[in-house]
Request: fold
Amino acid sequence: MKSFKRILLLIVIALGIAIYYNYPKLNILAGYSAKNTASSVFLAGRSLEFTDANDNNFSPINVTSDEINIEEKSATGSVYGLLKRKAVYREGLGAVLITNDFDITKPQPIPKRSTPDNNTPFPYGNADHKDTIFSNIDYKKLNETIDTIFNDRNQTRSVIVAYKDKIIAEKYDTGFTKESKQLGWSMTKSITGTLFGILKCQGKIDIQQSNLFPEWENDERKKITIHNLLQMNSGLEWEEDYNTISDVTKMLFLEKDMTKVQINKPLVGKPNETWNYSSGTTNLLSGILRTKFNTQQEYLDFWYSALIDKIGMNSMIVETDMSNHYVGSSYAWATTRDWAKFGLLYLHNGEWNGEHLFDKDWVDYATKPTPTSDGSYGAQIWLNAGGKFPDAPKNMYSFNGYKGQNVFILPDQDLVVVRTGLTKNADVNSLLKGIVNSIKH
Reply:
């Protein structure tokens, strides 16, 4: 009996040590699962069963279990019952991971939204347009190309091809439709960056502004400009790794105010000479946007009135953190058609239905390769100047997100291609090649 008790005690001690050292990881795993579940169920309208079987069914997230509270509109994620995290859904603000001291009953300002135009055809409204048959398109080849990206390995959820403002191909995986909201992940960064372009066009911001934060005024960080942040070229320390306990996972799943995380990071390089992809930088930019408005309400409204609802992306919701700042790095949800509208805005050089939201100079700036990025990045926009997609035009650029969310803009071909899914390993290069080759110019 004494031997048994000793063994039991050793097991308990070993388990305690394992929990202690793995607690931060468990915290993030449960947090991811809770947040993703709350957004999927209450924002995107999917079932808990579908979410667990698809969106949360990958290692190591699949060790978690999830529960939802329909009345409270909350989701709880747990890891082996050892640790639990909770996320709540707030109408107009999306889902947010909360801490125990977060008051879910406290009223929060909610962005004002405009009424959707469901009568005008796409892209300027939400109605279906009449089919337009272009004589220079090989539709058989186009559709065969798109079919190849839909299989279990690619886990593609939707594809849209828009040519000359008309949808010439559109396909959805089983369980998804044109009404299904898709999480853009880091495509949200391009939304955030575009807001700076709009403010610049309005003469309300100087992207060469430095001395951005009091915390930076006594060291070399005072030289960092908004321009450097937009290009991810500030020289600030940041680790962007979704597979470990890194700066980005701690920010997304532990922080109350995500706009402040990178403020306290030191320089590890020189501004304009040290490109480093950073979600912390984009949320820093979201915080800078907040300083341009007198009230939280104005800040919340601006994202929709100046851009999102302005171009009819009425399905889009950009989620906020516990401090009610937009998570501009990662959390915009929208239908595939609305993501396509965003691409068309850039294809039109900032003009939308006769109104200029920004000008071509901004497009040229945002798609100019950042120093030391090897031609891969502009200002919150990915580039193909370095030939990442060898069979696509070099002047193609894109909004890209985790697990293979893409909006590709091909200016010379008058094309926008949107692909959403659950894996970045799909052969997107062949998809783009096939689409371009199906159109004779």
Summary: The longest strand covers residues 83-90. Confidence is low (pLDDT under 50) at residues 8-22. The first helix runs from residue 2 to 43.
